[in-house]
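Data deposition worksheet. Section B asks for the primary sequence of the deposited chain exactly as it was used as input, without tags or linkers unless they were present during the calculation. Section C holds the resulting structure in token form. Section D is free text for depositor observations; keep each observation to a single sentence. Incomplete worksheets are returned to the depositor.
Section A, Depositor: J.P.
Section B:
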Amino acid sequence: MAKILIAEDDRTMRGLLSTLLELEGDQPVVVTQSTDILPTAEEIMPDLILLDVHLAGADTFPALQELRNTPRLSEIPVIMISGMGLREKCLRLGATTFILKPFRPQELLQRIRELVE
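Section C:
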């Protein structure tokens, strides 16, 4: 069972991701604000972070950079998710991988398993 931090502000997407992960036996922890990402990650020490590029009207690139610059958190895999083609930017700023919305649940689960097992 992996502990997965989900940073997503869309209620429908949060519900879908949480349910999908719970069905796989994982433990999702959800945040909806960029400012909550780092403190929550420090508190729960997740095995993986699912990070939407945009939360509450702001991008999460600063939070990604903070994660990468925090020694305790820097090695946690981060999957960035967006409906826009921002793959190169996300990877350049430190994301482990990128998934373009809409995505198939099996694609997301496969990427998660590759990174946490």
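Section D:
The chain has one domain: 3-18+34-104.
Residues 3-18+34-104 form a domain with the Rossmann fold fold (CATH 3.40.50.2300).
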